Every structure is written in C-alpha cells, then in structure tokens.
Amino acid sequence: MAQRExxxxxxxxxxxxxxxxxxVARHILTAQAAALPDLRGIVILLPGFHTAQPLAQALMRExxxxxxxxxxxxxxxxxxxxxxxxxVPESRRLALxxxxxxxxxxxxxxxxxxLAQELLVLFDELTHSLSTLPSDADAFAAAVQQAYNARQNxxxxxxxxxxxxxxxxxxxxxxxxxxxxxxxxxxxLAQQADKPxxxxxxxxxxxxxxxxxxxxxxxxEVTVFDLREMETRWSGLLRDQTIPLNTLxxxxxxxxxxxxxxxxxxxxxxxxxxxxxxxxxxxKRDIAIVAQDRVVARRMRALLERAEVLVADExxxxxxxxxxxxxLDRWFTALQSDFYHHDxxxxxxxxxxxxxxxxxxxxxxxxxxEQLLRKHGIVSGLEKFIALAExxxxxxxxxARLRQAAILLEQGKKxxxxxxxxxxxxxxxxxxxDTGLQQDDAGQQLLRALEGWQQELEGDExxxxxxxxxxxxxxxxxxxxxxxxxxxxxxxxxxxxxxxxRAFDAVVLxxxxxxxxxxxxxxxxxxxxxxxxxLNLPTRxxxxxxxxxxxxxxxxxxxxxxxTWQKDKNGEEGLLSPYLEMLRDLHTxxxxxxxxxxxxxxxxxxxxxRKVELPQAVxxxxxxxxxxxxQGVSISGYNSMVACxxxxxxxxxxxxxxxxxxxxxxxxxxxxxxxxDVLQRFHERYPQVCGHNVEEMEVALRRISExxxxxxxxxxxxxRAWLARWFQSLPAYLEWQTENEAEGWRxxxxxxxxxxxxxxxxxxxxxDRLDVRAEEKLVLDYKTQSEQALRNKLREPGEDVQxxxxxxxxxxxxxxxVSIENGKVKLVEPKQDVPLLAQLNAExxxxxxxxxxxxxxxPANGIDAVCTHCExxxxxxxxxxx
Length: 882
Fold this sequence. Notes:
By secondary structure, this protein is an alpha/beta fold.
C-alpha cells in the first residue's frame, strides 16, 4: 500500500489519478488557448459527475490564471435529459406487453410478468442497435421497419423471431418509449452540434452512444480521452490472452494492491471491516467499497455500523429487501389467507400498521386480540374474530378498519393495475400504514412510487386478477431501488461502473471470486447468448470485457486497493476472479510476490482474543422474596413443584407459561376434555344405569357424545376418529358403571371445586367425580390413559399428589383413577393408605412453602422424563450445565 499505518495522507498529496487529469487539462487548454480564460464554448462528456471536481481542479491548476470560466461538464444521460420528450412510462409498456403475451398464449403457465420484463430490456437493446438515429417518430418507425425486414430472411431461432415480432408490435404504437425518446434526444444533440466535445472514458461505448459520437463528429470536433490508450501498461495486461504471460511487462503492484483470501463469508466481512477501520485511523477520508457480492456487503455494513462507522451507499437496495415493503406483503398474505391467525398477528405486530394510534393503545389492542384468539382457538376468518371481540371495545375500531380495508381489495374481481393501486393506497390509509411509512425515508419513497405507478397506469385498459396484480407489484418492488441520501460518510459502497475516472484514498474490492467478477449479465431465461448474437445485441462477453476495462482503470487510478474473496465456500474450494488471478500470477512471475495481505490475520486474531468469555452456566436454584411467593397453589402447581421446583418457579412465580397455541387440529387433550363433559352430562341425566336397558343407555350416551363433539366435528374432519375411539369404549364404560353400582357406589356429583386452607397456603382444585356408599366417599378421576401408565404414576408414594389431595379435600377415604383407553375401562387405585397419604402431602406442602418464603432455592432437578415435555427446559439451560 502507498500509505502505511501511521502515515496520514496530507491534503494536496498527489494521487495516482492526478497525472491523468493534468494531461487531459493540458490538452484542452492547449486546444482552447485562444479562448482562455473562457471555456464555456466547449462540452466535456464525463462518465459520472464525481469526475467533474478533479477535472475542474486540474484545469485551474494547469491554466495558471486568476479566474477560469469552466466548460459545460455533463454525463450523456444528463445531457440528453436536458431536451424534453414525451414517452410512454415503463409501467405502461410492461402492462401492454403482458397483455400481448397473455393474448398469444405462447408460454402456458409461465410467469408472464417476469418474461415481459426481460423482453422490455431486450426491446430497448434492439432499439439502440438500429444503425441510424431517427430524429422523430416517423423516421424511427421507418428504421424499425427496415431492421425488421432485414431480419426476415435470416435464419433466426424461435426466440429471436418471437422477440422481433413482439418488438415490432410494440413499436407500432404511436407513442415513443424511453429508449426511443433517448435515441431521438441524442439525434437532436448530434444535429445541434456546434461546440468542441471532449469525452472521458475507460471502456467501450454502446452502439447507440458510438453512433452519437460519430454523428456529432460530422458537425463539430470530438476528442476522446480513453484511459486504455493513456495508460497502456495497465490496459494491455488482460486484453490479448494469446500472449505468453512471461513476455508481458507488468508494473509493480506491491505498494498498491493486496489480496486477502478468506475462509468464510464472516471472515471476509470482518477482514474488510478491519482494513477500513485501519485506513480511517491512518487518516484516509475517501474510502470506496466496491461490492461485487452484496451478501458480504450486507454483513460488512452491519459490522461497520457496530463499529460506529456509517456508510453512504451509491448503489442502494431494492425495495423488496426493505422492511417498508414487508408490511405490504404481510397485508396481502393476511388477505389471501382469509386472515389466518398467524398471518393476522404477523401483520398487526408490524410497526407500520395503525401508526395513527397511540403506541400503547395499539399494542394493547394487539395483545388483547392475540390472547382472545389463542384462548378460543379461532384459526382464521375476520368475521369470526369480530364476533369473538364483541365485548372487547378496544378491539372494535382496529377490526373494523381491517374489514373496511379488506373490502377495498376485494379479491374476486378483475380490474386495472391503476385501480388496484388506488385501492391499495386507500387501504393503507384506512389501516394507518401510510402514516407509519411517512415517518420513514424509505417509506416515503415507497409511497411516492406507488402513487407514481398509479398515475402512470390510469389509462391502462387491461383487467387483472388480484394474484396477477400482486405478482406485478412484487416485481416492481424488486426492480425499484432505494438510496439512503441522508448519510454523508467518508466510507461508501459503490459499484465497478461508478468508479470510472475516479480516485479514492483507498478501495476495497469486496467479493471478488469467480462467481461475482465478472458478474453475469442477466440475459434472461429464454434468450441466451446465441440468440442475442443473432440479433446483434450485446453479449455476456462484451459485458465482461467492459468490467475488465473498468477494473484495470480502477487499479490504474488508485494506489491503495485491497481485494477480498472467499477461498472456501460451503466446504468447496472457491476461485479468485480470473482477471485478478491473472494479475496476481503475472506479478508473482515478475517479482516473486503473490501480493497476499499479511497483516489482517494478526489483527483479526487480536480481536478474537479480546472476546469476553462468559462464565460456565450452572444448575439454577433461584430463591424468591417472601412477598412474591404465591398464597395459593393449584393441584397442577403442586404436581409441578414435586416434579421440578424450578419448573414451579418459572410457571407459577415468574408466570412464564407459554401462550396457548391456536389449535388447528384435534389433540388428545381436547378428546379428554370432551370425555369428561360427556360423562358429566350423562350422569346428571342418569345418576344410575341399573334399572335401565343397556341398549337404551348406550344410545343415550352416544347422543350426548355427538352433542359434545359437535363443534369439533364442524372444525376438523379428524374429530370423527376421536369420536369413534370414544364410541369404542362405551360398552366397557357402561359395564364398569354397572359393576360399580353393584358394589353399592352411587354417583353424587361431578366437576366440583375445592379450596383448602392449609397453614400458610391455600390448595385449590376440582374433582372429576364423587361417589358415595352410605357414609363412605370415593373420589374418581377420569383418565384417557392406559391402566399401566396410571399404575406407574402411583408407584412411588408422594410423586403424584392429585388423588390424595382430592380425597383429603372431600374427606374421602378412597380415591382412584378411571382408566378409559382402547375400549377398556379399569379402576386404578393407590396401594397406600389414602388418608395418610393425603395428610403427608398436606404437611409437605406447608413445609415446602414455608422454606420457599424463608429463602430456600428452587433447583432445576427434574428427571429426564419430566424435562422431555417441559416448556421451561430452554429457560433452565439444563443442556449447558448438566
């Protein structure tokens, strides 16, 4: 590198580009000596406006006069745009071409929007490839006719003929398009040529631009400063690949060019970031990052921002990659899914929706709605959500706005693109999304783009379904670029073409592997290079040659360049760009230096060494303040405490219980709840089955079962399988009930709650069923589990507190599970003395709660069987400390 660490570049230091600008300036001043100090009589054509300042400085420096009236310095596009011309907007051209493709039905179910977009690019290239420059629409139409006829006798491939026919059909319209308008403007500029023209370039012009220069030269003097001719040491390096490498004269790169081969994307981004930070410390104030790989660039930008280095971006990002566009996608997705609950919540949690409401009010409404639909398990349907929120006044307005906005974008009809856009803009207003977008620079640009397209497409006569329009909009957002102009930084992202005739303090060429340099020109999925060649259009080879010239020009004008690339990609060897590989080989052959960067690895290692080592996680055993200890505990909470104290802490003290998921299918839990409900209703009507006909009882039980399962049957066809499973158990249940009654037990009550005050804690719960026999009581708990599973649960005394506590709460001497599974019904009783077990459980609860209030820890000591189904296993981090 030219500047080493600690050597700040002083102002006014000669950079590598200055000699070239001075040569240009001297040539212009010599040719225009008679006009000095007034250079307004000439025009200088620049590759970009960034070149204007150094060229103006060179003119002032070389002129050595007190004052100099500078010439007109423009880019070709800017110069052409100074002439007014009416033309059809690109959005309307795209719509017309889509309709033409649709009417011809050549491509079946292909994505016609994408194909139409590719065709428009080709059409513009065809327009530019015409051999003459028509000055008006009639002349242009005649030129098109001539070119079309000329191709009629050629052996064109199918794709080429297709392009010509569609292109010709598009040209038949009376209105000019942007390509024709540009062509006509250049023709007028050439016809009006009356000033000497000086041109700066680093690579070949397009055919259209070259024709313009040729026509201009017929009327006025044209002088071209081609960097390839001014600096032959660089331009000849990669041009003629038939020349043996060892015969080429290679300039020394050692002080200006280095290569960093990364082993991963992350290392490449970190290395580039580290180098930029070093350059800033050295005092460099104009640093360019030429991003060949935008994925690495995105990561590098994040790393720079983490280091508090803002980055200006001359390239920009497509709207499709920005969060302001994501809210549109969420809105459309919710619409098309009939407000599927996940899509609806995703939309409502966007920061852009309901932005005209107070933030607290909006968040509260979204929270209430989420709780409501999770509680009631409504899967989709806006009207169902509105009915559900009938008594939630805070939700009325947001849901009404969703309904109003959905009506605006009614999906069952066809309408024009402009009408769809108008409906979209209005729906954004109704939802308050436009207010949110207005608060964001990218959002403002997005709204302007939507309104611009809507105005351009007002006259479009096509009719499109909602899905067609949505694909069109997605494509538009993928082609429209957002540039953040609010950041002014000494570090900037740019692209290779934008570096023409530019010099920086330092340059990072980022992502220079063989896949990204040369980048592949998008020739389209249908039209390969062969077709393009038959149509005399620019090929990928031409595109690559232009990039090669731009690369060499950048290296010639900049004396501090770092090239980064990934030598390993997903376990496979990555290749350096062939252009850079050849330069490196040439330098190695000539000077024995392969230009590898040797310092960054040490800096990255030093950065790694400074990482903070987090302490090893340990088994948690938190204690809680006595006032935070709950005053009451449910039976399930007590069971949780026995299974794992930390689980009890997380669930019942921190209240970290998972939000209930909206069930989209029937689960066994639903089946169990329905069985409990069926048996409660059945025994309320028939406390005893003895004395009734068995068939009559089964019919009654079936009828009640169908009533209880009715809502599930409407919701999910799979509920029929669960109902059939229950029907399979009906004979066994009636048989068990008959035997139970024969032993003298009688149904007394069901689903009765209890609230039991112990010393320092209240224990609450609800029993499934209570039977009585004279003075005896029997507590029963229905379980849709196998007999063996329930016996395992009762094997260790005190492990399951449910039955014992139920019995104690109802002063029952006996308690048992009723296993209802696989067409069998069995009574499963604990082997221990139930009253004694209940007393011990109560005393244990009192003691444990007293210790917790005294500051005892709640360790995460659950066994694996408990942890497998515990939703808190990610909180206790058992996997880290075990």
